[in-house]
Design brief:
The complex is a heterodimer of chains A (about 190) and B (about 475). By secondary structure, chain A is mainly alpha-helical. Helices cover about 70% and strands about 0% of the residues of chain A. Chain A has 10 helices and no strands. Chain A is flat and about 75 Å long. The model of chain A has no long low-confidence stretch (mean pLDDT about 95). In chain B, the strands form 3 sheets. In chain B, strands 1, 2, 3, 5, 6 and 9 form a 6-stranded mixed beta sheet that branches. In chain B, a hairpin with a 4-residue loop joins strand 2 and strand 3. In chain B, helix 4 packs antiparallel against helix 5, helix 9 packs antiparallel against helix 10 and helix 9 packs parallel to helix 11. The interface between A and B is large, with 83 and 97 residues.
Chain lengths: ~190, ~475
C-alpha cells in the first residue's frame, strides 16, 4: 500500500515493519531447518533478528496505545492542553519513525521525500513545543525534596545549589588535609 | 525564582495543574499524592546530616534500614488515618518519594513488592490468612529468592531442591552446588527473616519442576541465621547499594509441608503431587513486578527530564549571533531534541503502563475463573514492555545527563544516581534480550496461528492483516 505520512500511517507502517521482520524470522528458521539444522539451533541463529522483531512489535503497540488512549483522554481536556498533548504524541511517533527509517524503507513504501517531510515535521514540532517545555516538566509536580537535584530545583538557583552541595564534601571540612603533611610536603621536599 | 525560569512559566500556553491532574488520574488523586508527599516530608526523613554518598558501604546500609523502618512507621500512620489499601505502600516505597528518602534503594522493598504479592497470588486462603497479616504488620520481613548464582531467567535450570519427606511431613531444602546458591534478592542479606524460595520439587522420587516455598532464614528474636542457612551480602554494585542484595544456601533445611505455597500445585501428606492447571501460573509474581516496573520507569524519566529541562532554561551558553547575549541552551534545537522526546516518552510509557495494568487486572480476574486464554499474551507484552521501558528510560536519563554537560556528572545533580537505579532495571526481573526473546517465542506462535487461518488475540491481530503483504 502507498505510504501515508500521517500518525495513523506511521503506526500502520510500524505494524508492517514488525510483521515483516517476524515473517523473515519465521522464513529464516524454516530455511535453516530445511538445510538440516535442528529447530533450537535455527532459533539461536535467528535470535538477533528475533529480538529486533520483538522490539518492533513492542514499538508498534507503544505508539498505537499512546495515540489511541491520548485521543480518548484529550477529548475531555481544554483546547490548549489538548493541542500540547497531541503535539507530544506527534513528536513521539515521528521521532520513532525517523529512528526506524531504515526498517520503514525496507518494509513499507515510504520514499525519500516522505522522510524529508517527516524530518521537517519533527523539527517544527520541537519548535512548537519549545515554549511549553518548562510547563510540561512542572506538570510532573515533583517537589524539590524529591527531585533532590542541585540543577533541577523549582527556583532555578542551579549554581548556588551546586556550590552549597560542594561545601558538604567532607574534604571541605578542613583547609589542609593531613595527606599534605604525610605525603605531598615530603614529596616536594624530596624526603618521601 | 531565576528570571529565565519565571519567563518560561509566564509564556506557558496551557494550565499546568490540569495536566498534573491528568497525569495523576484525577483531581482527587493529585490531592492524595500531595498529602502523602507532604506527610512524608514533614517527617524530614529525606534530610541527612551527611549526604549518603559520602558514607561507607556498611553505613549506607545502616542508614537505609533506619530510614526504611521510619518510613514504614509513617505509612502505618497513613493507613490508620485513611484506611487505604496496598497502593500507599507502593506509592511511598517504590515511587519517586521512596527514592527521595532512600536514594540508594530500600532493603524492605521486596517485602512489599514481591513477598506479600507472591503469598497473595500463590498461597491458599489459609496460607494468605496466616502469612499476609504477619507480613503487613511487619511481624516478619520477607523477600523472594528465585535467581541462582548459576542461573537467572531460565528457571527450569534452577538447582535448589525441595524434597518431600512423608515420614515427617516436611520438605528438605538443599543447595547441591555452589551455582545453586540464591543470588541477588534485595533484603536477603541482613534484613529479611523469611523468604519465598523457588526450588525444584521432588516427591516420591520424581521431579515436578520449580515451586514456591516459604522458608524461615533467621531467628525471630535474635536474627541469627537458623541452622543450615548460609546467608550474606553479595557486595557493592553499580547502584542500589542500600537494597541489601544477598546470597542464600541451604544445607538440608527442613520446613513444614504447608510452607509450600499451594494455591496452584499441591503435595498431599502422603507425598502425592497434584498438578497445577497451568505451569504458567508460577510466573504470576514476575509479571506483576514487570508491570510495576514500567510505571517506575516513568517516574525516573520524569525526574530526569525535569532536572535537565529546568537547567536548560537557566543555563546560557555560546554566542551564535554577534552582539547578542548568550542564548538559553533550551533554545538550541539539539537540546530540544534531547529533552522533548524524553518528556513525550514519560507520557507514552505512563499511558502504556496504565493500559498494561488494566490488562493485568483483567487477565488475573479471568484466571480466577480458570480462563487462561490471554495469559501468554500478557506474559509476552509484559516482557517486551519491560525491556523497552527500561532501555528507553536508561537512554533518556543518560541523554538528560549529557544535556547538563559537566554539571550532569555531579552526584548532586541526582542524574548519575537515577541512572544507577534505571539501568539496574534493564537487568533485574529478566535481562532485556531474554525478555525480547520470550516475546519473540509468542510472536512466532502467533504468526504460525495466523498462517493456519486461526484468529489472533487483539495485540497481535495486525499480523493476520499484514501477513498477506508482499513478504508472505
Amino acid at each position: 500500500p502507498p505510504w501515508d505520512n500521517t500518525i495513523e500511517g506511521i503506526i500502520a507502517g510500524f505494524e508492517r515493519v514488525a510483521a515483516g521482520k517476524l515473517g523473515l524470522c519465521v522464513a529464516q528458521i524454516e530455511k535453516r531447518q530445511k538445510s538440516g539444522m535442528c529447530y533450537e539451533d535455527a532459533w539461536n541463529m535467528t535470535s538477533v533478528q528475533l529480538t529486533a522483531a520483538s522490539e518492533a512489535h513492542c514499538r508498534a503497540i507503544l505508539l498505537a496505545t499512546y495515540h489511541k488512549e491520548t485521543a480518548e483522554q484529550a477529548a475531555s481536556t481544554s483546547p490548549a492542553l489538548r493541542r500540547v498533548l497531541q503535539q507530544l504524541v506527534d513528536l513521539y511517533v515521528v521521532y520513532w519513525a525517523l529512528e526506524y527509517v531504515g526498517d520503514l524503507l525496507r518494509f513499507t513504501s515510504i520514499s525519500e521525500r516522505d522522510i524529508e517531510s517527516l524530518q521537517s515535521w519533527y523539527e517544527d514540532l520541537l519548535t512548537q513545543l519549545r515554549p511549553n517545555a518548562v510547563g510540561l516538566v512542572d506538570a510532573f509536580d515533583i517537589k524539590d525534596e524529591i527531585l533532590n537535584s542541585a540543577l533541577g530545583a523549582y527556583d532555578g538557583r542551579a549554581y548556588e545549589r551546586l556550590m552549597e552541595e560542594a561545601m558538604k564534601s567532607p574534604l571541605n571540612a578542613e583547609p589542609v588535609n593531613k595527606t599534605f603533611h604525610t605525603y605531598l610536603k615530603p614529596l616536594m621536599q624530596g624526603k618521601l | 525564582v531565576n528570571v529565565d525560569l519565571q519567563k518560561e512559566r509566564d509564556q506557558c500556553t496551557f494550565d499546568v495543574e490540569e495536566l498534573t491532574n491528568i497525569i495523576d488520574g484525577g483531581v482527587e488523586k493529585t490531592d492524595e499524592r500531595r498529602k502523602r508527599v507532604e506527610m512524608a516530608l514533614k517527617e524530614q526523613l529525606h534530610i541527612d546530616s551527611v549526604p549518603s554518598v559520602y558514607l561507607s558501604h556498611k553505613e549506607k546500609y545502616e542508614l537505609a534500614v533506619k530510614k526504611a523502618c521510619l518510613l514504614f512507621k509513617m505509612i502505618r500512620k497513613l493507613q490508620e488515618e485513611e484506611n487505604t489499601g496496598m497502593e500507599n505502600y507502593r506509592a511511598v516505597l517504590g515511587g519517586n518519594l521512596g527514592t527521595a528518602i532512600l536514594s540508594d534503594g530500600s532493603p524492605l522493598l521486596l517485602h512489599y513488592v514481591m513477598f506479600i504479592p507472591t503469598v497473595m497470588g500463590q498461597g491458599t486462603v489459609e496460607q494468605q490468612a496466616y502469612w499476609v497479616g504477619r507480613a503487613f504488620n511487619l511481624d516478619i520481613i520477607g523477600t523472594y529468592a528465585q535467581t541462582e548464582l548459576g542461573h537467572g531467567t531460565f528457571i527450569r535450570g534452577l538447582e535448589t531442591t525441595a524434597t518431600y519427606d512423608p515420614s515427617t511431613k516436611e520438605f528438605i531444602l538443599h543447595s547441591p552446588t555452589l551455582t545453586s546458591y540464591k543470588w541477588w534478592p534485595g533484603g536477603l542479606a541482613h534484613t529479611a527473616n523469611y523468604c519465598i524460595v523457588m526450588a525444584q520439587l521432588y516427591t516420591k522420587g520424581k521431579c515436578h519442576g520449580i515451586h514456591p516455598f516459604i522458608v524461615q532464614l533467621r531467628d525471630e528474636e535474635t536474627h541469627m541465621p537458623l541452622p543450615g542457612i548460609k546467608v550474606g551480602e553479595i557486595g557493592a554494585k553499580l547502584g542500589m547499594n542500600g537494597t541489601n542484595n544477598g546470597f542464600l544456601g541451604f544445607d538440608q533445611v527442613r520446613i513444614p509441608r504447608d510452607y509450600m505455597l499451594m494455591k496452584n500445585s499441591k503435595v498431599l501428606e502422603d507425598g502425592t503431587y497434584v498438578n497445577s492447571p497451568s505451569s504458567k501460573l508460577t510466573y504470576g509474581t514476575m509479571m506483576f513486578v514487570r508491570v510495576m516496573l514500567v510505571n517506575d520507569m516513568c517516574n525516573y524519566m520524569a525526574k530526569a527530564v525535569t532536572i535537565a529541562t529546568r537547567y536548560s532554561a537557566v543555563r546560557r551558553q555560546s554566542q551564535p549571533k554577534p552582539d547578542e547575549p548568550e542564548p538559553q541552551i533550551l533554545d538550541y534545537l539539539t537540546q530540544q531534541h534531547k529533552l522533548l522526546v524524553g518528556i513525550a516518552s514519560v507520557h507514552a510509557f505512563r499511558i502504556n503502563a496504565n493500559w498494561l495494568w488494566n490488562m493485568y487486572n483483567n487477565v488475573t480476574a479471568e484466571l480466577e475463573t480458570g480462563d487462561m486464554e490471554r495469559l501468554p499474551e500478557l506474559h509476552a507484552l509484559s516482557c517486551c514492555l519491560k525491556a523497552l521501558s527500561t532501555a528507553d528510560a536508561a537512554a533518556c536519563v543518560e541523554r538528560c545527563r549529557l544535556a547538563c554537560g559537566g554539571h550532569g556528572y555531579m552526584l548532586s545533580s541526582n542524574l548519575p544516581t537515577t541512572y544507577g537505579l534505571v539501568t539496574a532495571a534493564c537487568t533485574y526481573e529478566g535481562e532485556n534480550t531474554v525478555m525480547l526473546l520470550q516475546t519473540a517465542r509468542y510472536l512466532v506462535k502467533a504468526w504460525q496461528q495466523a498462517a493456519s487461518g486461526n484468529s489472533l488475540t487483539p495485540t497481535v491481530s495486525y499480523l493476520s492483516v499484514v501477513r498477506s503483504g508482499r513478504r508472505s
